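Researcher: Structure prediction, please.
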Amino acid sequence: MQQKGQWSTKLGFILASAGAAIGLGAIWKMPYVTGQNGGGAFFLLFVIFTLLIGLPMLISEFIIGRSTQKEAISAYKKLAPKSLWVWIGKLGVVGCFLLLSFYSVVGGWILVYTLKALAGNAIVSNIPPDVMFGQTVGSASMTMLGIALFTLLNVIVIALGVQNGIEKANKYMMPLLFVFFIILVVRSLTLDGSMEGVKFFLQPDFSKITGEGVLYALGQSFFALAVGFSCMVTYSSYLKKEESLPYSAGSVVIMNIFVSLLAGLAIFPAVFAAGLEPTSGPGLLFIVLPTVFGHLPFGEVFFAIFLLLFLFATLTSSFSLYEIIVAAVEAKIPNARRKITICLGVIVLLASIPAALSSSTLSDVTIFDKTIFDATDYLVSNIMLPLGNLLIAIFIVHKVDQKIVSTEFFSGSHISPIYYRVWRTLMVYVVPVVIAIVLIYTSYLSQ
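Model: Predicted structure follows.
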């Protein structure tokens, strides 16, 4: 039987986990939801929720995965045999598949834009950025080509395995992501008028925060850390026993907050310096930023760098989505990783077609007044993800043997018992209540 893969180093695990978390949530979604919800106050709430809700949930998934050394579905089955709790893992696998069906579409757009930028066509052509964005998402052939290339890159890395594929890819891509980000932040902060953008992003104005904005900040903390679908259960199942789970989780959270900070400092100062609005929504990166970079010396170079780091972050996140599915199937069909990965790639490519055509051929097809793309996004992000988090929070506290939980929490470190008591208090009294409120409010908004 094929030996179970493991991370070769603690750094490899942290970079891969951070890569799973740092993706569309941190670089694409975080800036535009921050722009739409008042700037600094929203970002501060996001940081607070990430530390008080996201971090405890991340530690919980790490405990479940490392204690069982099993992928998502088998992990819950091992900890709670002959029970319905195994459906948490199945929910995660289904959720990751649905997420991939539209995540790959955005990944394809980014890939197409990156190729255009590297060719010097994204901002130096006479086509306005909003027109170019419309042409890209409105072209079925261009969108599908982008998805196919994005899927191929994922298949190649996942097929190579944990150490030779995911870990090696993240060891190169994550450091490059930070280097590219720092270059862009320095350039953005040296623009005339950039300080207005810094104030917007870092100076809290709670008068601009609404109840809906608070819930968006909470949801963003889940989305940004990739918790709720048991991706981190699968990743931590490859981790050695001598590594500290709280320290590893803390490192991932700090890196994620740092990248979110860098994203804001790269985008908002440049947007304000160009006299544009930060409330542009999902098109912020594809429409506003090309306009901003188009007014800068060597703008096409900086825009290409930005898109490259965006592509890297999107890929490192999609690796985790593929891995949870591949690992679940591989548990049933050992020694067939490459075949499973190739088949999954083909299935994901086919499943992406409806979302891919939501802006073109299928633009008139709606589900509850939403396009197929938006409806899938809403189902995954606003219903399945919070539900997954709620179930995991209940499971780790009320179903798992607490001796196993405490052993995994302290294994590999001399961490003070007070941290365990704080984590458990949050998981018992705070996390499930807050998540339940989110689910209830989301259900109310959908009526």
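Model: The mean pLDDT is 84.
Researcher: Thanks, that helps.
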